[in-house]
From TrEMBL:
HAMAP family (UniProt xref): RibA
Domain spans labelled GTP cyclohydrolase II: 27-176
Binding site for Zn(2+): C63, C74, C76
Residues at the active site: D134 (proton acceptor), R136 (nucleophile)
Name listed for the protein in its UniProt record: GTP cyclohydrolase-2
Residues that, per the record, bind GTP: R58, I59, H60, S61, E62, Q79, E100, G101, R102, T122, S157, K162
Protein function: Catalyzes the conversion of GTP to 2,5-diamino-6-ribosylamino-4(3H)-pyrimidinone 5'-phosphate (DARP), formate and pyrophosphate.
Broad class of enzyme this protein falls into: hydrolase
Co-factor remark: Binds 1 zinc ion per subunit.
Key words, A-Z: GTP-binding, Hydrolase, Metal-binding, Nucleotide-binding, Riboflavin biosynthesis, Zinc
Cofactors required: Zn(2+)
Gene name as annotated: ribA
Pathway: Cofactor biosynthesis; riboflavin biosynthesis; 5-amino-6-(D-ribitylamino)uracil from GTP: step 1/4
Length: 211
C-alpha cells in the first residue's frame, strides 16, 4: 500500500550575504521530508516567502561547472547571478536543486561533455550514455514552495516544463519571465539545441547562431 506523502516543513533558516560581491542579504532554508534525500535549499531575498503574495521564483538546477567555475559550455552561472541580482532588488526565492547534469550527476555530465566535444548535441549525448534527455522531477520544488506557504509565483525560466510541473502540483504560475541569453565561447550549439529540441523559450538572434 502507498504511504501517504509527508508534508515537508522548513527545518532551518540561516541568514547570510550572497552574490558576486557577497553583499546581498539572503536567507538559506533547509527542509524536512522531501521526496528524496537530496539536500535542496531555498535562498530567500527580502523575506519574499512571507511578505509577498506572488514572489519571483527561480528553480535552478545545480551546475558545478557553470555556477561555481564559470564554464564556457553553458549559461547556468550567468542565470544564477541574474536571479540573485534581480531578487536583491525586488525580493524573490531561488530553489537551488541538487539536480546536477539535468539529474544524471556530475561525472556523467562530464562524460556527456566528452561526446559533445565530438559534435553530439547535449540531449543526444545523454541518450548515448543510456539516459533520457532530462531526468529532472520538479515535485520537490513544489514541496519546498508549499512548505514556505507559496501557492502562486512568477517564474524566472525559459523552460516550459518547470511551469507545467508546478501547475501539476497545484502551484499557480502567473507569469513566465525569461532569463537573459548568455552567449559564450562554447555554448552556441548548446543554446540552439535547448531552443529547438528542448523547447526552451530562448530568443536566439541571428548573430547568435553557431559560426
Ligand atoms: N546532461 C547534461 N546536463 C547539462 C548539460 N549542460 C548543462 N547541464 C545541466 O543542465 C541543468 C540546467 O538545465 P538547462 O537545460 O540548462 O536549463 P533549465 O534549468 O531547464 O531551464 P532555465 O530555467 O531556463 O535555466 C543543470 O543541472 C546543468 O548541470 C549537458 O550538456 N548535459
Ligand atoms: Zn551549466
Amino acid at each position: 500500500m502507498n504511504q501517504p506523502a509527508k508534508i515537508s516543513q522548513i527545518r532551518t533558516r540561516v541568514p547570510f550575504q550572497v552574490g558576486r560581491r557577497s553583499d546581498i542579504p539572503a536567507e538559506m532554508l533547509s527542509f524536512t521530508d522531501l521526496k528524496t534525500d537530496k539536500e535542496h535549499v531555498a535562498l530567500v531575498f527580502k523575506q519574499a516567502d512571507s511578505l509577498q503574495d506572488t514572489p519571483l521564483v527561480r528553480i535552478h538546477s545545480e551546475c558545478l561547472t557553470g555556477d561555481v567555475f564559470g564554464s564556457s559550455r553553458c549559461d547556468c552561472g550567468e542565470q544564477l547571478n541574474e536571479a540573485i541580482e534581480k531578487m536583491a532588488e525586488q525580493g524573490g526565492i531561488i530553489l537551488y536543486m541538487r539536480q546536477e547534469g539535468r539529474g544524471i550527476g556530475l561525472y556523467n555530465k562530464l562524460d556527456a561533455y566528452q561526446l559533445q566535444i565530438k559534435g553530439i548535441d547535449t540531449y543526444s549525448a545523454n541518450n548515448q550514455l543510456g539516459f533520457d534527455d532530462d531526468l529532472r522531477d520538479f515535485a520537490e520544488a513544489a514541496q519546498m514552495l508549499k512548505a514556505m506557504g507559496v501557492s502562486q509565483l512568477k517564474l524566472l525560466s525559459n523552460n516550459p516544463r518547470k511551469q507545467a510541473a508546478l501547475e501539476q502540483h497545484g502551484i499557480k504560475v502567473t507569469e513566465m519571465q525569461s532569463t537573459g541569453v548568455y552567449r559564450k565561447q562554447d555554448n552556441h550549439y548548446y543554446l540552439e539545441t535547448k531552443a529547438t529540441r528542448g523547447k526552451h523559450r530562448l530568443k536566439l538572434t541571428k548573430d547568435m547562431q553557431p559560426s
